[in-house]
Amino acid sequence: MPPVRIALIKDDLYLVHGAKNIAEVFKTSSLSVTLAYGIALRYCFGMARKATSVYFADTTGPQQKPIQGTTAKPQNRVYYRTHENLLRGLLGTGLAPVSDRFESALTESLSSLHITEEGVIFPDFLEFFEDFLGTAIIKSIFGSALLSQSPDFVSNMWKFDKLVMNLAKQLPRVCIPESYRLRTKLLQSIKRWHAFARTHSVEKKEPQNEDADALWGSETIKDRYNMLLDFENQDYDSVASTDLGFIWASVTNVVPSSMTLALHISRDALTRSKIRQGLDGAIQPGRRLKFDLKKLEKQPLLLSMYAETLRFGVQIHIPRTAPHRNLSIGSMLIPQDKLILINTWLAHTDESVWNTKGNTFPLGKFWAQRFLTDPKDPFSGPTKKRFQTHERTNTEVENVEGGHHACPGRVLAKRIMLLSCATLVTMFDIDILADEDALRYGSPRFGFGVRKPTGKLPFRIRRRGGVAFDA
Fold first, then answer.
1. pLDDT over 50 (residue 400)
2. CB–CB of 115/128 below 8 Å?
3. Strand, helix or coil for residue 406
4. Which residue from 266, 338, 362, 439 could staple onto 430, CB 3.0 to 4.6 Å apart?
């Protein structure tokens, strides 16, 4: 299947689909993502045109050696330098500390709800996750000062998230005043946090590890802030826009994805029981609930449901550009400097790839066992390819990650999903009270996020008796 050219008013873009074509894009090291980043920063997150010029000019790519043909100044390799910073802080030496901070923040956030064995009814499962999980993520990555300076930041972030597509469409302020108002308020909150952190930061003479920093979250975020200010045409306003985009991306996909995983665990009693049995061996001894991550990340059914959550729900456009030469994909030659998009939804619903057990479990439905492989069943496993190769593994995750530009936070996001759901199912009984119409999933902003339930999902949650939970 060749790429599809889509003619827009201002320019053409190319939609790449099909497993072979996607693999070809991901293995091509001479592609860039900064064109798409510059567009998003300008129109969605409010960066001034002059400041975005450094992003549009940076065609050097993600590797230490710049893409051949680039003319960007070495000191302005904004993508490579910020990507390396986040690789260290979220995937390298910083992964274990930020994972610990998240687990502590998660416990604190849930403990603050004061849920008893008598139980309480909440009006919406998604809003519940947006509140407690959004708060925990922001505290663990960016520190507590942001939320202490702006207690309404999390709620404003979710209001903004519901309107961000208006900004992506580049509509003027007069048409969407609330979208601009919320963005301005969030940017003001971020600049207030930055100013507070700058004022109260103490310069440390020795290199620091990634332990918690209440002001910045970690040394990674502090270093990133100072690095961003060093690039051409950057100032306090532009760095606030960059951080707004970073915070938004860190929260708004993983939270509803975690909710979807928890929803499908909670709705089926047998699935919930099997998950709990597996988790018993992953809980570390002590009064405070804490999981052994190595054991948690080896739970077959939980991992299968995690992978199915991504396949079922993620509908993002992954952007690329060939900045210096045309790109040949299949039978089509894509001109240089044209925006290339890979949509995960098309990849995740490809009937030629995925196993549906003879359409018993269609790709539009969530199937908890889709990624499990039974050695005795040659027709088990996530993909149809397995039927010919007869490979065997306990679980498989075959979701789009992005090749050379893979997200530095992908392992942390996985841990957030697993830890949040493992904590909930261990500590609480949850009864979903919504009707089937509300449980249907929709795509209000296809290509710009994840699928979500179309209606509110009221639920009852109660503390399980006999389970300790010390914050």
1. no
2. no
3. coil
4. 266
The token duo for 57 is 């000019």
| One-letter identity of residue 439 | L
Q: Within a 10 A sphere around the Cβ of 469, how many other Cβ atoms?
A: 17
Residue-wise pLDDT tens digits, 304-322: 999 999 999 998 999 999 9
**Cβ contacts of residue 41 below 8 Å, gap of 6+?**
47, 51, 52, 55, 241, 242, 245
Tally of helices (H runs) and strands (E runs) in the chain: 19, 12
Q: Any bridge partners for residue 461, and if so which?
A: 120, 430
pLDDT at 397: 40
Q: What pLDDT digit, counting tens, does each position of 93-144 carry?
A: 999 999 999 999 999 999 889 899 999 999 999 999 999 999 999 999 999 9
428-432 and 459-463: which strand pairing?
antiparallel
For 428, the enclosing helix (H) or strand (E) is strand 428-432
* H-helix segments, 11-124: 19-27, 34-43, 49-57, 78-86, 95-111
Other Cβ atoms closer than 10 A to 410: 15
Of 445, 55, 374, nearest to 234 by C-alpha is 55
